[in-house]
Write a structure and sequence with these properties.
Shape: globular
Strand content: 25-35%
Order of helices and strands: EHEHEEHE
Mean pLDDT: 80
Strand order of the largest sheet: 3-2-1-4-5
Number of helices: 3
Structural class: alpha/beta
Helix content: 10-25%
Largest sheet: 5 strands, parallel
Number of strands: 5
Radius of gyration: 13 Å
Low-confidence stretches: none
Protein backbone atom coordinates (compact mmCIF):
# COMPACT_ATOMS: atom_id res chain seq x y z
CA UNK A 1 0.00 0.00 0.00
CA UNK A 2 1.43 3.34 -1.06
CA UNK A 3 0.57 6.65 0.63
CA UNK A 4 -1.96 7.24 3.42
CA UNK A 5 -5.39 7.19 1.78
CA UNK A 6 -6.90 3.91 0.61
CA UNK A 7 -10.15 3.18 -1.23
CA UNK A 8 -11.47 -0.36 -0.81
CA UNK A 9 -13.87 -0.89 -3.70
CA UNK A 10 -16.54 -3.51 -3.06
CA UNK A 11 -15.53 -3.55 0.60
CA UNK A 12 -18.31 -5.95 1.56
CA UNK A 13 -18.44 -6.34 5.33
CA UNK A 14 -15.20 -4.42 5.87
CA UNK A 15 -12.63 -7.22 6.23
CA UNK A 16 -9.84 -5.26 4.48
CA UNK A 17 -11.08 -1.92 5.79
CA UNK A 18 -10.54 -3.08 9.39
CA UNK A 19 -7.05 -4.39 8.64
CA UNK A 20 -6.01 -1.22 6.86
CA UNK A 21 -7.36 0.93 9.69
CA UNK A 22 -5.37 -1.12 12.19
CA UNK A 23 -2.23 -0.27 10.21
CA UNK A 24 -2.97 3.45 10.41
CA UNK A 25 -4.31 4.15 6.92
CA UNK A 26 -7.13 6.58 6.13
CA UNK A 27 -9.68 4.21 4.63
CA UNK A 28 -12.82 4.68 2.57
CA UNK A 29 -14.98 1.69 1.78
CA UNK A 30 -17.32 1.62 -1.20
CA UNK A 31 -19.92 -0.99 -2.07
CA UNK A 32 -23.39 -1.08 -3.57
CA UNK A 33 -24.72 -1.94 -0.10
CA UNK A 34 -23.20 -0.64 3.15
CA UNK A 35 -24.97 -1.91 6.23
CA UNK A 36 -24.92 -0.44 9.73
CA UNK A 37 -23.03 -3.43 11.16
CA UNK A 38 -20.17 -2.89 8.72
CA UNK A 39 -19.96 0.80 9.54
CA UNK A 40 -19.99 0.13 13.28
CA UNK A 41 -17.27 -2.51 12.98
CA UNK A 42 -14.92 -0.04 11.28
CA UNK A 43 -14.69 3.09 13.45
CA UNK A 44 -12.72 5.79 11.69
CA UNK A 45 -13.49 4.61 8.16
CA UNK A 46 -15.68 6.46 5.71
CA UNK A 47 -18.22 4.55 3.64
CA UNK A 48 -20.15 5.34 0.48
CA UNK A 49 -22.71 3.36 -1.44
CA UNK A 50 -21.26 3.19 -4.92
CA UNK A 51 -21.02 1.05 -8.03
CA UNK A 52 -17.53 -0.06 -9.10
CA UNK A 53 -18.42 0.88 -12.68
CA UNK A 54 -19.29 4.48 -11.73
CA UNK A 55 -17.43 5.69 -8.65
CA UNK A 56 -18.45 9.04 -7.08
CA UNK A 57 -14.88 10.25 -6.45
CA UNK A 58 -12.81 12.90 -8.18
CA UNK A 59 -9.75 11.84 -10.14
CA UNK A 60 -6.70 11.16 -7.98
CA UNK A 61 -8.68 11.10 -4.72
CA UNK A 62 -6.79 8.16 -3.17
CA UNK A 63 -3.18 7.05 -2.93
CA UNK A 64 -4.05 3.36 -3.21
CA UNK A 65 -7.11 1.61 -4.60
CA UNK A 66 -7.87 -1.97 -3.52
CA UNK A 67 -10.37 -4.13 -5.35
CA UNK A 68 -10.47 -7.72 -4.09
CA UNK A 69 -12.65 -10.49 -5.52
CA UNK A 70 -14.85 -8.04 -7.38
CA UNK A 71 -14.10 -7.69 -11.05
CA UNK A 72 -15.36 -11.17 -11.82
CA UNK A 73 -18.83 -9.87 -10.88
CA UNK A 74 -19.03 -6.65 -12.90
CA UNK A 75 -20.98 -6.27 -16.12
CA UNK A 76 -18.74 -3.67 -17.76
CA UNK A 77 -15.17 -4.75 -17.06
CA UNK A 78 -13.57 -1.87 -19.00
CA UNK A 79 -15.62 0.76 -17.15
CA UNK A 80 -14.77 -0.78 -13.78
CA UNK A 81 -11.04 -0.82 -14.53
CA UNK A 82 -11.11 2.75 -15.85
CA UNK A 83 -12.93 4.00 -12.73
CA UNK A 84 -10.39 2.37 -10.43
CA UNK A 85 -7.46 3.86 -12.32
CA UNK A 86 -8.90 7.38 -12.40
CA UNK A 87 -9.40 7.70 -8.62
CA UNK A 88 -5.83 6.64 -7.80
CA UNK A 89 -3.07 9.24 -7.54
CA UNK A 90 -0.94 10.40 -10.46
CA UNK A 91 1.33 7.39 -9.95
CA UNK A 92 -1.43 4.86 -9.39
CA UNK A 93 -1.10 2.18 -6.81
CA UNK A 94 -3.82 -0.34 -7.56
CA UNK A 95 -4.21 -3.82 -6.12
CA UNK A 96 -6.68 -6.15 -7.81
CA UNK A 97 -7.41 -9.72 -6.73
CA UNK A 98 -9.43 -11.98 -9.01
CA UNK A 99 -10.38 -15.38 -7.72
CA UNK A 100 -9.59 -18.26 -10.03
CA UNK A 101 -12.40 -20.16 -8.30
CA UNK A 102 -14.90 -17.65 -9.75
CA UNK A 103 -13.65 -16.71 -13.21
CA UNK A 104 -15.58 -14.07 -15.07
CA UNK A 105 -15.99 -13.32 -18.72
CA UNK A 106 -12.74 -11.51 -19.48
Amino acid sequence: VAGRSVLDIACGRGFLVRRLLARGFEVTGADFVIDRETQESCPGARFHQADVESLPYADRSFDTVVCAHTLEHVRDFDAAVACRASVATVTPSICTCISSARPGNF
